[in-house]
Amino acid sequence: MRDSPVRHPGGATAAARILRDRNFIEHVPAYPGFRRALPVTLALVCVLLFASAADAQSRFASKFSFGGFGTLGLSHSGERHADFVEDFTRADGPGGSHAINAGTDTRIAGQATFLATSRLKFVLQVMVEQDVDGEYMPRAEWANVSYALTPDFSIRGGRIVMPAFLVAASRKVSFANPWVRPPVELYGMLPVYSLDGVDATWRRRLGEWTGSLNVAAGRTQSEFPIGSVDTDGLWHVNTTFVRGAITGRLALMGATLRMDWMDELFNGFRAFGPQGQAIADQFEVDGSAFRFATAAVEYDRGNWFTLAELGWLETNSAFGDKLAGYVTAGVRRGPVTPYATYSRATLLSENSVDGLTVTSLPPEYAPAAQALNAGLNEVLLGVPVQQTLALGGRWDFATGIALKAQVDFIDMLGGSPGTFINPQPGFEPGGSARLISIATVVVF
Amino acid sequence: MDKTKSFEAWTRRLSAMIVMAVILVATSGARAASPIANGDSVVVVVSAASGVTEISRLHLADLYMGRTTRLPNGLLAVPIDQTAGSTVRKAFSATYLERSEAQIKAHWSKVIFTGRGRPPAEVADDAAVRDIVAGDPRAIGYIDASLVDSRLRVVRVR
């Protein structure tokens, strides 16, 4: 097929199918997320818990620790013709599908840590939250073993945190963060919590600064409603510096995307000779290499704080190049912490393309070419571009538990559907929406 | 989005921000006077056998927030904490860490779930801190100033 100059029927069918699939565009993922559940890990946690209970007085118990965190959240969206989602791993959300939705933020997780020796440590984190099928299946977010070569240098292998962001490790631990959820414009770009691979971390104190350097390599497998997106050849370097109230962080990563559910679209283009091949080479997602860089600063004076983070994504594909970031500021007044966040995602690449030159084709090929052009443009326009002003508050009313409330004023920009999926008749990409969320957050 | 709509949207947002500012001002009156003891009454101690005589406030905070593993003399540190909610711990957190206990808890919830660290060991009271610190040159703790004995050295915090 690749050798044929023009094989339009395949491409036309693919494009038509893609256009017919209403869910196509809204589910184009930003990037890989989570692997499916491993119920077996829950059994492992039970065994560990049982062992620790049965052996509570022994040395084993002192080497074993268990903790957990959770969020019980409800959200309501003023946009009733589509569903708001935190990222594209979700099947639905508040808005068109639910007047009030608990699935967006609600989750519970347990983490077991076993210190086999002072150097050797096992960590297992199991989380239950709404998955790609809308079900609540436990899955192992982290399952790794680490070894401290020195107290300041350790290596780790297994399923480990994907350290892409400032609050990457705690992006699901709402108790640890100011917001109900991290700003979706930035964090939604990379809905990946864990990677399968290895990492090494080195810590050093330099004057009054403490610095850490972390290097990771591996792969990810993620499920989205439209299909799976995997990455391989993933590498990540990040460094954090802290001096008292100031924290700074720089991170750089790269990986190759693997996904097959857009093959028909790009194979369709490839059937249209050199021009089609050039378009496919430029926009094909499968096999494309992406790079992602973030910079963050945090200043926490105790009674007030501010943090800002900027991320730059270059995908070399139809997923586009983006710049996204946010600024948050809050004040702590006793147990009450009001905060405000402005976040924005901007597209650096074009959100439309001329595509195949339909007029220069024989008339019988025109419909197929037009369908392919439309399919590609729908993908380009579907990249979420929006801004949000979020106002909220947190009330720490007891130890380890807090109540949060947040209002998000969302503007989808440049005709983009933003972070809204499942559009129904009446949905206007490029519009505005207001999202109201309340959440009870705990750690234990 | 046309200009009128945009103007209306931002007017709504501005109203929301004003409401929030009012709530902020209103709650500021409700801010309880912290029951924090005078910081001078809590002192940082090491074993008399330890070589450590002084430590910077930032270094001390790094030790208690899990950011460094070493004492100023380069030896591995064993920081000892007191029971959450105790008066002496509140005083220590406020004076030396410049954080409330709730903020410290939020900090550790961040660190613990990375699987990377654990908070310092907690012991029951000043007497327990004295015994542990006296017996371990790597240990560092804090107690009420009136309870320092000859086995301990008070570390100057600069």
Q: Measured on Cα atoms, how large is the radius of gyration of chain B?
A: 22 Å
The average pLDDT score of chain B comes to 84
**Greatest interface and its residue counts?**
A-B, 53 and 45 residues
What percent strand of chain B? 15-25%
If strands are numbered along the chain, what order do they take across the biggest sheet of chain A? 1-3-4-5-6-7-8-9-10-11-12-13-14-15-16-18
Helix/strand/pairing category of chain A: alpha+beta
Arrangement of strands in the largest sheet of chain B: 2-6-1-5-3-4
Query: What composes the largest sheet of chain B?
Result: 6 strands, mixed
Structural class, from helix and strand content of chain B? alpha/beta
Identify low-pLDDT runs of chain A: 1-40
**Number of helical segments with 4 or more residues of chain A:** 7
Detailed description of the structure:
The complex is a heterodimer of chains A (444) and B (158). By secondary structure, chain A is an alpha+beta fold. Chain A is built from 7 helices and 18 strands. Chain A has a 16-stranded antiparallel β-barrel with strand order 1-3-4-5-6-7-8-9-10-11-12-13-14-15-16-18. In chain A, strands 2-17 form a two-stranded antiparallel sheet. In chain A, helix 1 runs antiparallel to helix 5 (263-270). Chain A is globular and about 75 Å long. The termini of chain A are far apart. In chain A, 49% of the residues are buried. Chain B has 158 residues and is an alpha/beta fold. Chain B contains 5 helices and 6 strands, in the order αββαβααβαββ. Chain B has helices spanning 3-29, 57-64, 87-97, 101-112, 126-134; strands spanning 42-47, 54-55, 78-82, 121-123, 139-144, 152-157. Chain B has a 6-stranded mixed beta sheet with strand order 2-6-1-5-3-4. Chain B is elongated and about 75 Å long. Chain B starts with a helix and ends with a strand. At the A-B interface, strand 1, strand 3, strand 4, strand 5 and strand 7 of A face helix 1, helix 2 and helix 4 of B.
